Amino acid sequence: MSTPILEVSNLETYYGPIMAIRGVSLQVLPGQVVAVLGANGAGKTTLLKTISGILDPRKGSVLFEGKPIHANDPDLIVRNGLSQVPEGREVFPFLSVRDNLKLGAFIRRDADGIRQDIERQLDYFPRLRQREKTAAGLMSGGEQQMLAIARALMACPKLLLLDEPSLGLSPALVKEIFIIIKRIRSEQNIAILVVEQNAAMALSVADYGYIMENGRVVTDGAASVLLEKDDVKQSYLGLHGEGIRGERRWKQRKTWR
Ligand code: ATP
């Protein structure tokens, strides 16, 4: 088996006295798409923020390509090849699409490569090409999500962290974004760790999944196996496989397994 590009071991992260991540371990292999699923408050965003260096863990380790990064600044972590698309997109609202993309390449000095990569992102996301000169803040939520992903890709990451890319988007747009995620993965061989409440959609593109509850991983397995597990189907995917109904049931459940 290949060496993981990301290896998280026994991670514990606190907000003051509140323990939000309770001994989480997971791994992502090179080129793999891994989904972290769970209801509101399960700890998914806190986990991503700890991996990307925005929050410091109190215990445990984060290894990126075998080297510890949990004591590094976020800026250095991006330079090492790990980019995060935050929940809520956080594009620069007064800058154009093109300028947002240029800022995503802040760690690079290869002007020609940057120009080529901007074109490549605009090919992936034709909606962004149409709105290349538009201020990002004037675009729809779906377009801003696409821009946030494209901007993160401008740093040429080896691992992309995506925090709830489906949040607040219509089912059609969610589908469009996940099709592009699939394409990026197959064409660029970038590993992706995606945090989602839309379990059905996330597992449809993922190789492997972890389910979190109350700051812990409560179950994990190959995405194809999780999709077929009765308890996952009933509690999380809905009887008919749609995410939203499953999420409501998930929130009603007190325990997992
Ligand atoms: P969501 O889908 O709503 O973003 P999540 O699974 O990403 O949920 P987190 O946002 O990581 O969950 O929150 C995990 C826990 O940490 C929750 O109990 C939450 O209330 C708490 N929490 C999150 N941010 C803070 C904060 N800034 N200060 C204190 N507690 C926080």
What structural class do you assign from the helix and strand content?
Answer: alpha/beta
Query: In which order are the strands of the major sheet placed?
Result: 6-7-8-3-9-10
The outline comes out as globular
End-to-end gap: 28 Å
The pLDDT mean sits at: 87
Helix content: 40-55%
List segments where confidence is low: pLDDT < 50 over at least 5 consecutive residues.
239-257
Q: Helix segment count?
A: 11
Bound molecules: adenosine-5'-triphosphate
Main β-sheet description: 6 strands, mixed
Reading the helices and strands in chain order gives EEEHEEHEHHHHEHEHEEHHH
**Approximate strand percentage:** 15-25%
Total beta-strand segments: 10
Indicate the radius of gyration in whole angstroms.
18 Å
